[in-house]
Design brief:
By secondary structure, the protein is α+β, with helices and mostly antiparallel strands. The protein has a single domain (about 1-65), classed as Molybdopterin biosynthesis moea protein, domain 2, CATH 3.90.105. Helices cover about 45% and strands about 10% of the residues. The chain contains three helices and three strands. The protein has a three-stranded antiparallel sheet. The radius of gyration is 22 Å and the shape is rod-shaped. InterPro entries: SinI_DNA-bd. Keywords: DNA-binding.
Length: about 80
């Protein structure tokens, strides 16, 4: 499915101007049909999968208990 710049902006939750800049920098692949840019939606699939993996990894890390330091001395 192809998206316009406006739809891509909503899909990625970034401003339209940033989407245009990413297209011009060739970081987002797009087709120009003579009137507007069309962006293939599935090119973001890998990005969102990696983002989800990273979120899960951070969640797991945050759930780990803080290990006790063996060098801590009791001050009694």
């Amino acid at each position: 499915m192809y998206l316009t710049i406006e739809e891509t902006s909503d899909y990625l939750s970034i401003p339209e101007e940033q989407v245009k800049n990413l297209i011009l920098q060739r970081k987002i692949r797009a087709l120009y049909d003579g009137e507007q840019y069309l962006i293939y939606q599935d090119q973001f699939k890998t990005h969102f999968e990696q983002l989800e993996k990273y979120k899960n990894m951070v969640d797991e890390y945050m759930k780990e208990p803080i290990p006790e330091d063996i060098d801590v001395k009791d001050e009694d």
